[in-house]
Amino acid sequence: MTIYSQGMYRRRILQGAVTAALVSGALLRAPAASASPCRGPQPRPAGELPYSDFGLTATAEAVTEGVDLRGKTALVTGCNSGLGLETMRVLAQRGAHVIGTARTAEKAAAACSSISGKTTPLVAELSDFSSIEQCAIAARKLGMPIDMLICNAGIMALPQLTLSQGIELQFLVNHLGHFLLTTRLLEQVKAAEQGRIVILSSCAHQLAPPQGIDFDNLDGSRGYVGWTAYGRSKLANGLFAMELSRRLAQTRVTANAVHPGVINTNLGRHLPQDDRAKDDSAFDKNIPQGAATQCYVAANPIAAPISGQYFVDCNPAQANEKMYDVELAARLWEVSEQLIAQRLS
Fold this sequence. Notes:
The chain has 345 residues and is an alpha/beta fold. The protein has helices at 6-14, 18-21, 25-29, 60-63, 82-93, 105-113, 129-141, 169-184, 186-190, 226-247, 287-290, 292-299, 326-344, and strands at 73-77, 97-102, 119-123, 148-151, 163-164, 167-168, 196-200, 254-259, 310-312, 315-317.
């Protein structure tokens, strides 16, 4: 998730957009930084869970040091830049065969050829259900289990309402696209010795509407605020991971959501350049550190038995209570299936 300038913070406060202030660089740099959902001590969930010694500054290489991924296969969406590229690089470095997806064949091929190790480029335009179906077919044709499915790609805080197939674009790309890809590849993940599904959420899931998912506004017809829509999509990512964990409880597959950190990546490309942070003080991690949590959950042995959790800084943390709402998660799954079926029919 990307952070923006103090000027943006003042303007949005004046406009009454308090939700955007929660993720503004000004608030994160203020003395009361712990008030932000992206800062401060992360409470741990109840129950006995294995914890690592890794934290805020751990890197993807550090959390996978000594992990042998030879003979394993990973699929990483959004492999062409930022956290996706670093995740692909490190997993391939550890011996995994990485299927890297991007919006175009050219981007996927360029990313895969830029790193060492075994890779296969595939196209997955996450706003296009037909493209996702073709990607899943191509991945299945490779004829191998998928040990690590990492739903990394996303878009953030579009300033104007943008629809595709009648659905707000952030919800479509961040949630529905990954929902379709994951459900189409579940049998390949189940075929792995111990499949792991990692879905990138964000601390911004706390910016979702009060009801969590406003199912009557997925087309923006009842109003649109970019940060709220982004928060809704990130809450949907978390709800999806929790519901997956429940549905896969009798299998060897785990499913978890992660907050990667506050990182200066291409994720913020849709926001005005004047509102971009001018220095690195607004960010809590660089890209190698930002890729650490998803690599940890996907590959580190300590995380192997953990499922249905929200990870921050390579350890389970407590998310907003809406992420654990079983009825909301079940309804989201049902609505997601309906929306996809309507558009693929």
